[in-house]
Amino acid sequence: MSTRLPEPPEAGLLNALRFGTDTFRFLEGIQARFDDGTSVSIPGRPPLVVLTGPDLVGEALDRPEDFPRVPAQDAVTMIAENGLVQSEGALWSQQRSVMAPSFSGEQVTAYANTTGRRIEARADQWAAAGARTTDLHREMTSLTVRVASEILLGEDIGTERADQFHEWMQVAGEEFEFGIETVLPDWVPTPTSGEFEQAAAGIRELSEQLIERRRESLAAGERPDASDMLTMLIRAEDNPDIDYPENQIRDEVATFLIAGHETTALSLTYTLCLLSWHPEARRRVRQEADEALGDGPPTHDDLAELTYTRRVYDEALRLYPPAWGVFRQANGDVTLGQYTIPDGSAVIMPLWSIHRDGSYFEQPDTFDPDRWERRTPRAVDAYRPFSSGPHACIGRGFALAGSTLVLARLVRDFDIDVPESALDDLRLTPTLRPADGVEATIQPVGGR
Ligand code: HEM
After folding, report:
1. Which of 43, 88, 397, 445 could form a disulfide bond with 108, CB atoms 3.0-4.6 angstroms apart?
2. What is the reported pLDDT for 200?
3. Are strands 439-444 and 132-135 parallel, antiparallel or unpaired?
4. How does DSSP assign 383-431, residue by residue?
């Protein structure tokens, strides 16, 4: 027989207010008190359900018909409403299969090698600049947006537009910070500021330019064997079985420009912060990179030797998951495990607090990359930085391969140091991001 998830003892609205105003503490409190999850009543609207148990989370993510995505929930959606990050049902399924070949093993190898070349060029610039202080998050954003555009869209957008992109994403992030409005009726953020509109228009326009140029180069017969995502999307237009809504390609391009770089930039920033605070881990990464990498750009082949670096990255994604939560909505009164989730419930799966729960991870607040060598089944089950189920991140392989190479190369050649307080002020926008950049000193390692 199914039951309702337990309610927290405090009055519903009070809980909802705490969710809106002090989200980290609210989530950590809920995580500590409920093994499976809780249902917070909110007067006049369906409950807010927080799932804390990895089994329930996995089940909900495996059932997109019962737990579809929340309409228009974040910046990506407001900028590109039909992109893969937002679409559901037939359109999602069509688009995912058009794009799947661009994410195959072969493409991941090509992506890793492109990332390797790009990080080589960036490392040379850093070395030439000598010791300096800079915003690490901005550096990582400019790196990953250029890599994403080159690999997915077949064109490097260059430094200036990459920097512009960082500004646009800052604006979008500020608009979408979780606040009290998140839990009020009609839980759909509606950013209207002129600044946001400008950022959104800028991203759409850039996407259109990239598409136009690619159409021209395809029409001119250039690079007939290209298999990047944009080429696949344009070619699919000739397939009579494929039906694109208006602006579909533009929406996908904008979506991938955002989804393909932002989380990766954040993950690199967090990993480099953790390494700055853990000198022994940094020493081990440097030693591994010294042994694995040659003189030229890092390549996909080097990954087999970078196992500790990869564990460091996995551990950083646990402690600071850039996608801190996954959001769904109950479609009808649905049964989940032993519970009934009422129709319309907002369902939050807080990766942030699940990843820091001592029931699944020994000494959960400790940065311990070697836990991924021990790989206890409970930890593996609870760990979902890329989500799971049919909507799991399509770029996971890209992100893991590319980031491991970036980390190895940067840590081999540079001391990157940030203050202990660098991540004290984190913001829960749809992604987990530093409130105001991350100031770092970057110093070439002697002899490089
Ligand atoms: C460390 C880096 C990354 C993290 C932590 C991350 C995380 C995630 C998560 C948690 C989801 C699931 C969201 C949901 O279920 O609602 C997701 C979906 C997605 N990600 Fe990533 N991602 C990363 C990198 C990338 C990259 C490099 C790309 C593109 C190349 C990408 C493209 C996407 C897309 C298109 C989806 C939607 C997939 C679908 O619904 O079919 N992500 N990502």
Report:
1. 397
2. 86
3. antiparallel
4. --TT--STTS-TTHHHHHHHHHHHHHHHHHHEEEE--TTTTSSEEESSS
Which among 200, 185, 167, 180 has a CA at the least distance from the CA of 75?
200
Between the CA of 264 and the centroid of ligand 1 the distance, in Å, is 9
Question: Which of the listed residues 255, 384, 393 should we mutate to test ligand 1's pocket, taking the one with most ligand atoms within 8 A of CB?
Answer: 393
**3-state SS class at 321:** coil
448 Cα: distance to centroid of ligand 1 (angstroms):
35
Q: What is the pLDDT of residues 397-420, one digit of tens each?
A: 999 999 999 999 999 999 999 999
Q: What's the burial of 269, exposed, middle or buried (CB within 10 Å: 0-12/13-18/19+)?
A: buried
Segment among 34-48, 190-204, 313-327, 353-367 with least mean pLDDT: 190-204
Q: Identify the pLDDT of residue 183.
A: 46
- Spatial contact of 24 and 352, defined as CB atoms under 8 Å apart: yes
Is 317 within a domain? yes
Q: Specify if 163 maps to a domain.
A: yes
Total tally of structural domains belonging to the chain: 1
Check pLDDT > 80 for residue 215.
Answer: yes
158 within a domain of the structure (yes/no): yes
Q: How far is the CA of 323 from the centre of ligand 1 (A)?
A: 8
pLDDT of residue 153: 85
CATH number at residue 92: 1.10.630.10
